[in-house]
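User: What would this chain look like folded?
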Amino acid sequence: MARVGGLTEPIVDHETEGLDMARPRRVNRAGLKRLARRCLVVAAVLVAIPIVLTFLYLPSFVHPISTLMVKDLATFSGYDRRWVSIDDVSPVLANSVIMSEDGQFCFHRGVDLGELRGVVDDALAGEATRGASTITMQTVKNLFLWSRPLGSVRKVVELPLAVYFDAVMSKRRIMEIYLNIAEWGPGIYGIEAAAQHHFGVSAKRLSRRQAALLAVSLPNPIARNPAKPGPGLRRLASLIERRAGRSGAYVGCLD
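Assistant: Here's the prediction, encoded as structure tokens.
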């Protein structure tokens, strides 16, 4: 303090004041760096999880569950899923699913580039886009990702993950996992539970018609009931039934 004209006046150290003003900025920068490092660690962990789990899911005795099944467990909703080997699934069911969901399943490498280019062209032209998800893409989405919200962000992650999954897994194993985690109604997961719930038979004893009805219900299993199909669903099932009967080389990778 300094006395000037009988008044007490503080002495301001301008150098110290400048340092004090600069210190919070340094602290903020340090905090941002720590936050960035933590975000990178979290991102690395999220990337590593599907990479590691893919290898863990290779053996046939491992029975993966989907993120929707995890959600049902977390919310105490419960679900019905009975794992079944692909050898115990009616071949016509797998054929029907391929012809309905992904006709190029046996030939692409996780992503159908032709379909994807068509979607991009439609989007650029301002037209309504069609679905381009392959069975492999749907499998990795069900295993590792989410449905809503941020569907566009999910797609960006889904594409490279599907290519990786297809490179590591055999087509037969991909189909086996998909058929056992696909949703076929509220709380109904996997083809064995679906066959029993909708038709009262095992997956191995599904008829051609039943298989086609189950296949065409996959895009919207909550709204589409294969046991009580409307006229539109019956027409789609008839089309898939005919295609499955002539599938030939399109399903050769499952032999």
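The chain has a mean pLDDT of 84. If you want, I can go into more detail on any region.
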